[in-house]
Amino acid sequence: MPLHSRALSCDDSAPRRARAWVAELMRASGRWGDDTVHDAILCASELVTSALVAHSTTMVVRLLIDDAGLRLSLVDDGELPDDQDDPAQRVQWMGFRLVDAVADRWGIDATSSGRELWVEFHAQAPQRG
User: Fold this and answer.
1) For residue 129, what pLDDT is reported?
2) Exposed e or buried b for every residue in 71-81, given b needs 16+ CB within 10 A?
3) What pLDDT was estimated at residue 26?
4) For the sheet containing 69-76, what is the strand order?
5) Which element (helix H / strand E) includes 123?
6) Following DSSP, what letter does each residue of 21-74 receive, concatenated?
7) What span, in angstroms and rounded, lies between the C-alpha atoms of 12 and 61?
8) 73 near 90, Cβ under 8 Å?
9) Which residues face 105 on adjacent strands?
10) Structural contact between residues 108 and 115, judged by C-beta atoms closer than 8 angstroms
11) What distance in Å separates the CA atoms of residue 118 and residue 104, rounded to the nearest whole number?
12) What's the pTM value of the predicted model, to 2 decimals?
C-alpha cells in the first residue's frame, strides 16, 4: 500500500477528520483487527490534538501500511515539546502517554519546518474467518 497523506486545516474538526480517514484506510486494507484500528484512531486524534495545542498553522497526516506494519505520522510547524512540567505543554505530554500505552513505537522528530510526530504498529497475522 502506498504512502497516503492528507492535509488538514488547523481547526477543531481536524481530530474527527483524521480519525475517520485513518479508520477508512485501515479497514480498506483488510489487514488490521478492530483493536489495532481503534488504537490507531486514538493515536491519530492525539497527534492532531497535539498540533492544535501547539498552535500549528499547518498539518499533514501520513499513513503507510506495508509488510512491516503501519506508520502513522503528523507533520506540522509546531515546536518540539521539551518540558513535561511546563503547563503549556502538559496537555501534549498527557496525550503522548496515551500514545505510548497503545503504540508499539512512537516518537517526535525535528524537521526543517517544525516536527514530525509518529507512531508505529507491527504487522499482524492475517485475520481468520
Assistant:
1) 53
2) bbbbbbbbeeb
3) 95
4) 4-8, 59-66, 69-76, 114-122, 105-111
5) none
6) HHHHHHHHHT---HHHHHHHHHHHHHHHHHHHHTT-S-EEEEEEEETTEEEEEE
7) 15
8) no
9) 120
10) yes
11) 11
12) 0.89
Contact between 55 and 91 under an 8 Å Cβ cutoff? The reply is: no
Three-state SS string over 4-33 comes to EEEEECCCCCHHHHHHHHHHHHHHHHCCCC
What are the residues whose beta carbons fall under 8 Å from the beta carbon of 80, sequence distance 6 or more?
Answer: 108, 110, 115
pLDDT, tens only, 33-70: 999 999 999 999 999 999 999 899 999 999 999 989 99
Rg from Cα positions in the chain: 14
- What is residue 97's three-state secondary structure? helix
Cell numbers describing residue 55: 498552535
Structure-block grid coordinates of residue 22 = 485513518
Closest CA to 42 of 23, 63, 67: 23
Instruction: Please report which helix (H) or strand (E) contains residue 114, including its range.
Output: strand 114-122
Cell of 76: 506540522
Locate cell 506494519: which residue? 69
